[in-house]
Write a structure and sequence with these properties.
With 150 residues, this protein is mainly alpha-helical. Helices cover 44% and strands 8% of the residues.
């Protein structure tokens, strides 16, 4: 009776820390070890957030953070209390929350104040981390910081 060979599974794609470090979407930093907070700091990868590394003024940084958080909320990110698995996006649970409406208003303000092209540039840099439109994004963040009186 001949032996049959087992089918080999295709190797899974590696989108873990090494691949993210290589493509620039993560950076290596040091942080406290959660298991031993008093021990020396450990190396850990974290997401690269472009606007944190742009050297923005505090008001412009706050505008960038507001835009980033608004985009997350509008795309379906949800608030989690503790480690609850029952949290759901606002469209799954009875409609938009106050935070979702506020986030949508911030993104609408962005488009109405800056126009389509400048708003696109700001979102590409702040939300997507794309470096090509950084100069336009800086100008847009200055305008939005003044508009929101930050």
């Amino acid at each position: 009776m001949p032996k049959t060979s087992r089918k080999r599974a295709d190797p899974a794609a590696d989108f873990g820390p090494r691949a993210r470090l290589d493509n620039g979407t993560a950076v290596m930093s040091y942080r406290a070890d959660p298991a031993a907070p008093h021990a020396p700091a450990i190396r850990a990868a974290r997401a690269f957030v472009r606007y944190e590394h742009m050297g923005l003024a505090p008001a412009e940084f706050d505008a960038a953070k507001r835009i980033s958080e608004a985009a997350e909320i509008c795309s379906g990110a949800k608030e989690r209390e503790g480690n609850s698995l029952r949290s759901a996006a606002f469209w799954d649970r009875g409609g938009p929350t106050v935070a979702a409406l506020e986030a949508a208003r911030h993104l609408r303000d962005l488009r109405e104040v800056l126009g389509w092209h400048a708003a696109y540039c700001v979102v590409r840099v702040v939300v997507d981390g794309h470096p090509a439109h950084e100069a336009e994004a800086r100008d847009g963040l200055k305008v939005m910081a003044r508009w929101w009186k930050l």
